[in-house]
Amino acid sequence: MALTYRLATEADLIDIVGLLADDQLGATRERFQLPLPATYMEAFTIIASDQHQELTVVELDGQLVATFQLSFIHYLTYQGGIRAQIEAVRVKSSHRGQGLGTAIFQYAIQRAKDRGAHLLQLTTDKKRPEAKKFYKSLGFVDSHEGMKLHLR
Amino acid sequence: MALTYRLATEADLIDIVGLLADDQLGATRERFQLPLPATYMEAFTIIASDQHQELTVVELDGQLVATFQLSFIHYLTYQGGIRAQIEAVRVKSSHRGQGLGTAIFQYAIQRAKDRGAHLLQLTTDKKRPEAKKFYKSLGFVDSHEGMKLHLR
């Protein structure tokens, strides 16, 4: 598969939000309508101008088929180490089950190494046991609880 | 308790690294020696210059007794929402068991709300069941698995 990876641009925004909304959980959280709610563009501007964020799109034959966001968070812990965190991973529904997820994570792991991170982390909803199995197959260890406090 | 909160300065660095090292897991990860390894100062400089990071110290009677780092991560998900993440929380061993943790988390929750976050999240090691219980008492839900992939 000739997947290509690049940072998202403003021109990708509608496609990306479409991907985010095309998901069981995402459908209840997003507002995918045209014109897009302004909050998406506001968030994009902040993410794109932040050197510690990589909002990435994945293309296959010139078509946008997946997206994810990598964050590189600097801490004092681990002697001033960098943690990479991956979130908002979505593969287009028409392209699932074809190994894109594995390829994308292999890319993300390499990218995290290239940027000097000592760890790549994510949280996955316990309601998705197949996702946890997938992450374990990539070498992730489920050593932690992912605790969430919704503020609204 | 008259706790005061402020952003860490360079002058706090030795005290903070001392707190991070004064911990069962931290003892194996940190290098607390004087002069401090340069990587701590390098990380501090990056964190302090990042408007999305708040490396915070907590003082009691003018003494530094705790530290934590709040990160505000912008995503396109949740209609361009902000997630607050808390990490590297440490209370001085001489001051544990006195309710500082609860007070600090109440502050962090309010701070996350003030900055417009829709969620406050953290991961906690499954080897620390009492920590999970503590977070649950604050309203956190253990809905997710915290998956980690060490890269070194």
From TrEMBL, chains A, B:
PROSITE patterns: GNAT (PS51186)
SUPFAM superfamilies: Acyl-CoA N-acyltransferases (Nat)
Pfam family, one: Acetyltransf_1
Domain of life: Bacteria
EC identifiers of the protein: 2.3.-.-
Keyword match Transferase: yes
Residue span, N-acetyltransferase domain: 3-152
Keyword set, alphabetical order: Acyltransferase, Transferase
GO molecular function (one): acyltransferase activity
Enzyme class (EC, first level): transferase
Keyword set includes Ribosomal protein: no
Name of the protein: GNAT family N-acetyltransferase
Species, as recorded: Spirosoma soli
Lineage: Bacteria, Pseudomonadati, Bacteroidota, Cytophagia, Cytophagales
